[in-house]
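Pasting two entries for a bug report.
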Amino acid sequence: MKTHFLINGNYLTRPQVGIERFAAETVLALDSLCSRKNDDECRYTLVVPGNAANLPALQNIPIIRIGGNGGIFWEQFVFAHYVRVQRGISLNLCNTMPMTAAGIVCIHDVFYRTMKRSLSQNFHGRLSILWHELNYWRAKHSPFPVFTVSQYSKNEITRNLHIAQNRIHVLCNGWEHFRRITADDSVFRKFPALKHGHYYFTLGSMADYKNIRWVLHSAQNHPENTYVITGKMMLSAFNGDEYDFSKSSNIIVTGYLPDAEIKALMTHCKALIFPSLSEGFGIPPLEALSLGRPVLAARSSCIPEIYGSAVHYFNPLDYEHTDPDLILSSDAGSPDEVLRKNTWCQCAEKMNSVLTALF
């Protein structure tokens, strides 16, 4: 009897951003992959908390709802107990896993090890660091394979967690979810100062490693440009007055927006600015390229590995030379190959191939 994989559905109780997006889209792609396989029954089951809403419309992967509200307690006790009773292997797509039913985990990055300073500005952040360190320890001492999303992250996992390279398998992220989203142009009524094609767009949280300071310096150095920053504010993570948006009247800070409004802003921007100092993968540039928009990206971490010549690069630590028009005038190649290689379908196929070979 072949091993059955029980997918940790705790991600369905959280907003679908970042790693939650990865989990949701990978499960959808696995479901589609199962429909194309007629030589065996589906080896996956999605296990979700009792309060999980907006369950995916899966055709082949069964969904089992157990227990109460999601969260750490559900993952560590309710889901863990179910995995043990079913004698399956837990498949955990969002960095964490049940300690007593540890199975396969996707570690997207090791920021809780490498970015401690910026992530420890408050009590919640310090608790998150401790929790992720425990998960790092469990992954290191687990007999199961580890997934990640770039060669850069694979190297960082080996360097920081001392997990052997042959245990780590590189997947990717994708962009096809943007096809299903209908752009909501009503967002321009919320921000009437925005004109199509006349603003630079940045999407991401305000954590230090996202390097929003580069955008702020660019706005101060180039008042002729308009900049839009979308994402969770996380102001408690800031240090110093350089994060005072009021100093630049040409910056519009939208806060968190739904996907439909984000797509509208991205569709009509002059270019996406992606200044992050460190990323496990970085989905926003992929989304922008899928819409035919140019991308100004930091030459850092995994970005050159993922995006090659398809984006316009800049030095993310140079806060003097921040002219986006000048950067945009540099050469960039076609995004076709990047979009072809990085899809949710490719991610699911690689994951399934690894699991089939090992189990």
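Entry 2 (this is the one that rendered wrong in the viewer):
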Amino acid sequence: MEQTKINFQIGRSYLKEKFKIVLAYGFIVTVFFLIAFLYGYEQIYLNMLYAVFLTLFFGVVFLAVDFLRYYGRCRTLFLALEQEEVRMEDLPEVMGLQESLYQELLEEMRQEKRKFLTEYDEKKKDITDYYTMWTHQIKTPIAALRLLLQDDDVDTSEGGQCSRRRQTEREELFKIEQYAEMALYFARLDNLSTDLLLRNCDVQEIVKQAVRKYSVLFLRSGLSFQMEEFAVWAVTDEKWLSFVVEQVFSNALKYTNQGGIAIYGADEEGNRQQGGASYLVIEDTGIGIRESDLPRIFERGFTGYNGRMERKSTGIGLYLCEQIMRRLSHTIRVISAPGRGTKVILGFVQQTVE
């Protein structure tokens, strides 16, 4: 179908370009016959018709040959457009001064584009390096603050009030660390392919590590927690998949005020499946997501109704999750409704079982 469309486009373009020549030919023939009629040259009409048909025959042959050449040049240009980068040697041979000038302009534009992309890549690398450096540097004062909080725990003079304050301080410090880590993953996203270490991983172990990491927030939430035994193995990168699981778990904690969180293996529809499951479900009983917001939740910067009302969303977490899962050849899908909680279904296409 695409080839037919291209052929039709080339044919229509050729007819449009040659229409003036055909119109001029018809006008000249008409003028000759009109002059012959005015001067009464009826006896030469037959000879003129012979000349007209002869020139028409050679004209059709010429147009046919010219069209084949035109078609070949257009096809070459279409093929060149399909390539990621157009090279001058991929273009048709120059025919005339006008095409030569066009190709010179094209070469200048190509050089300008290459220069711009080089400058853009350098600036982007500088920004990525800065975010990476900043994230690593910020971890030092975060670790120092955590040690100070641990040292202060020995002070029992203030009793329970001191303990509650220290717990709150730990939670806020943990959030700062997670936001710094999100900045690092966001900066490295474009270079994800060079940072991958793919191996056969036990997804349940990755989930358990994420749960232990977020226990500092979970203990104060008052929510119930249930993680069933499931067998999900996947060829993946443990570090990047851990980040996805942590983000989903963080969102579940953030938007769930009562009830609890459940984690289990499932089939494609999100139904529980313990043995040899291909999907992981993180389900909460939180506020849910509006139907109108669901198609856009993976867009960068989109916060939706909940984000605007709760003022907790950055619009980056789910965007990073979708990008990472797609580049790992995995899938992520969300089933949700207001007041009925949310199911996040992680699918692992490259599943293998040891």
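Dev reply: Rendering is fixed now. As a check, the viewer should reflect this: Residues 350-354 have pLDDT under 50 and may be disordered.
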